[in-house]
Design goal:
Layout lengths: L5 E8 L3 H16 L4 E9 L3 H11 L3 E3 L2 H6 L5 E4 L6 H10 L3 E5 L6 H14 L3 E4 L6 H11 L6 E9 L12 H4 L4 H4 L3 H17 L2 E9 L4 E3 L6 E3 L5 E8 L4 E7 L8 E8 L2 E6 L5 E6 L10 E4 L20 H18 L7 H20 L3 E2 L2
Helix pairs in contact: 1-10, 4-5, 5-11, 9-11
Bound molecules: alpha-L-sorbopyranose.
């Protein structure tokens, strides 16, 4: 335990699924990581007073706000965490940065490229620490994949393939809009699976395999009209239910990406695989503690895919948890991200993905959406 701990006082905006994931991370991080900084849960902000109060009681926030502008102005808050729907990300992050606060933003950074560019400009102009919650980088098995790639164990890379499959919007009776279903509403979400799911695949891909130069894409909205929860009217659906693209990476490798909410039977099957001249690796979220690795340089008669159970003390992050062999899960990825942030904050260094890092993903999602309209290859610039 660090001798005297410094506080970072958190103001969280949003009390949904991600508000819970982030709050859990703030509460647990100092129990498992020896850090100079300690998050203090100062205030949670949401439009509904009763819900904000219930959330504050559940997660241990000292106070509540119902107007994010008041939260951003509070002098007893150091960091604003934007865990509300995508249509709030730009306005709140820009105001928070202008007020000199550290800014954390849930993915995707923004609904569209112009918003994302303005957000990057705001945090860089203010010089405030900033970070986007692309949590899957910090699954220990995914971090191990990054180590193996950096050690050049795969050699020259030829292929990257990723998919993120779900099935929760298949019913035509499911409405769009409102608190739980804003992801189906283009005004709130920006796009459908492109911004929600492909963005995860793209963030990991760029991290592991470098810049994506160009893409050609297709998308479909299978259910064209849904009742809007707020207006009560049947309205056109303007988000993509499924989206897939081919990509060319700067390193010369080829990528294939697919995301859908119409893959019956799959709840959150995020998988990726990479193939290089000397080896391959593969990972999937339903078996998140395993990394599959094939090393062509192994002795021929023993050569084969090995399934690494990423639970040993010398695996990324695992030395902070239990004993070798015991697994951790989804919520720990957020704990790891804030632990890295607090470590880097003490050292005065940024934590990836910063807003600028996440802008690279926005260039790709934007090019994907453009290509679905143009039918052409689009540059990710
Ligand atoms: C959508 O169902 C969702 O919750 C995404 O919004 C998250 O980013 C992803 O991690 C899991 O699926």
């Amino acid at each position: 335990m660090a001798a005297t701990q410094r506080e970072i006082r958190i103001g969280l905006v949003g009390y949904g699924f991600m508000g819970r994931a982030h709050s859990n991370a703030y509460r647990r991080v100092n129990d498992f990581f020896d850090l100079e900084y300690r998050p203090v849960l100062k205030a949670v902000c949401g439009r509904n007073h009763d819900k904000a109060e219930a959330f504050a009681g559940q997660w241990g926030y000292e106070s509540i706000e119902t107007d994010w502008k008041t939260l951003v102005e509070r002098r007893d808050i150091d960091a604003i965490d934007v865990a509300a729907p995508n249509d709030t990300h730009a306005e709140i992050s820009i105001a928070a940065a202008s007020a000199g606060k550290t800014v954390f933003c849930e993915k995707p950074l923004a609904r569209n490229l112009p918003e994302a560019e303005r957000m990057v400009e705001a945090v860089e102009r203010s010089g405030v620490p900033n970070m986007v919650w692309y949590n899957y980088r910090r699954v220990p098995a995914v971090s191990l994949a990054k180590q193996l790639i950096d050690e050049e164990r795969l050699g020259h890379i030829f292929h990257y393939r990723a998919k993120f499959l779900q099935d929760w919007t298949m019913s035509p009776d499911l409405p769009q809009g409102g608190q739980a279903l804003w992801r189906l509403n283009a005004e709130a979400a920006g796009s459908g699976v492109t911004g929600d799911l492909l963005a995860h695949c793209i963030d990991t891909a760029i991290w592991l395999n470098g810049r994506i130069e160009q893409v050609t894409a297709m998308a479909e909205t299978f259910i064209k009209k849904r009742r809007h929860q707020e207006t009560g009217r049947i309205e056109a659906v303007r988000i993509d239910d499924a989206s897939a693209f081919l990509a060319r990476f700067e390193n010369g490798s080829l990528g294939t990406f697919e995301a859908t909410r119409f893959a019956r039977g799959h709840k959150a099957l995020y998988c990726f695989e990479m193939n290089g001249e000397n080896g391959s690796l593969a990972w999937n979220l339903h078996d998140l503690h395993r990394l599959e690795f094939f090393d062509h340089r192994d002795e021929a008669k023993l050569r084969g895919w090995r399934s690494i159970h990423v639970t040993d003390g010398d695996h990324p992050y695992m030395g902070h948890w239990w004993v070798p062999g015991l697994q951790i899960g989804y919520e720990h990825t957020f704990v790891h991200q804030i632990a890295d942030f607090l470590t880097n904050l003490a050292a005065g260094t940024p934590t990836a993905p910063t807003f600028r890092d996440a802008l690279a993903t926005e260039y790709v999602t934007s090019a994907v959406l453009s290509s679905t309209r143009s039918g052409q290859w689009e540059a990710c610039t």
